[in-house]
Design brief:
The protein contains three helices and six strands; from the N terminus they run βββαβββαα. The protein is of the alpha+beta class. β5 and β6 form a beta hairpin. The longest helix has 13 residues.
Length: 104
């Protein structure tokens, strides 16, 4: 999850202008039923709109990128209530713990 560029002024309803923050949300992992619906729901209740999405599923693995935007200053905090938002995932540090978990 990372911010894309500086906040920008965009036109809202009734000609008013709002400061909009744009983010890129990358989702990788095991494909699960309802995953896209959950992400869309979480974005919506957190105050984000999904501007664009690239959805890819191969061999049971998802690799999705969502471009989201919000004018709410609390949107990121609200989103963090529902999903963990690392700004960088270091595979070398997480892989051993996952292998240990899978090994039982």
């Amino acid at each position: 999850f990372r911010q894309v560029g500086p906040p920008a002024q965009e036109e809202a309803l009734f000609g008013e202008r709002k400061l909009v923050h744009r983010y890129s949300l990358e989702l990788k992992g095991i494909n699960q039923a309802g995953l896209l619906a959950y992400i869309a729901w979480v974005c919506s209740i957190s105050g984000f709109s999904i501007r664009r999405a690239r959805i890819s599923t191969r061999e049971g693995q998802v690799s999705d990128v969502f471009e989201v935007a919000s004018s709410s200053p609390d949107a990121v905090r609200l989103l963090q209530r529902y999903i963990n938002l690392p700004t960088h995932m270091d595979e070398s540090s997480s892989l051993p713990s996952l292998q240990q978990l899978w090994a039982g």
